[in-house]
Amino acid sequence: TRDYIDGEQFAALMDRKGIRRDDTVVIYGDKSNWWAAYALWVFTLFGHEDVRLLDGGRDAWIAEQRETTLDVPTATTSGYPVVERDDAKIRAFKDDVLAVLGDVPLVDVRSPLEYTGERTHMPDYPEEGALRGGHIPTAVSIPWAKAAASDGRFRSRAELDEIYGDFDPSGEVIAYCRIGERSSHTWFVLTHLLGFEKVRNYDGSWTEWGNAVRVPIAKGEEPGSVPEASGRR
Prior knowledge:
The protein is an alpha/beta fold.
């Protein structure tokens, strides 16, 4: 079964890394922090309260000629408690998406060519094996990278408000990409920078949907409509 580790495994990982439950955890990475946002989202599944992104990630840090090191810190075990993963609030599954088609806004954060169906994976990146191209009907295309400035940092509040202005901050939104990593970036922007209250990340994303049997798929630049008997609620 493809899924995340359970509470016991997460606690053991945190314990090995010397992370305590009440620690402030700062995460950074490459690609304007999309993988870092994915890690932050997983931390949130386990209810770790104080976890943050380093704006701009590693690239911005290096561009500012800040100190780096090759040293690996020695961690002491932390006694991190076992807290079971809570998927309900911020994670969506395929059946959840099917149930709300046409009722809850969906945002496809992949590249435009992935959205239209001309590609099944992002350019210059490994293929995850999706059999069909296209997008989930009714999903609008807002590539994740629109929220990132040229230096990898997040855009200003005014710019983000303009990008995501068609969504209701108090309503539900579901974001997806190919395996949930790019959509974690959008989830972070909507949740932590714009204050949206009910954003979920569909981490099965196109790798699951594009291989699934009897799920609707739209192609082209338009969002498309909900077909009859789609499984919606």
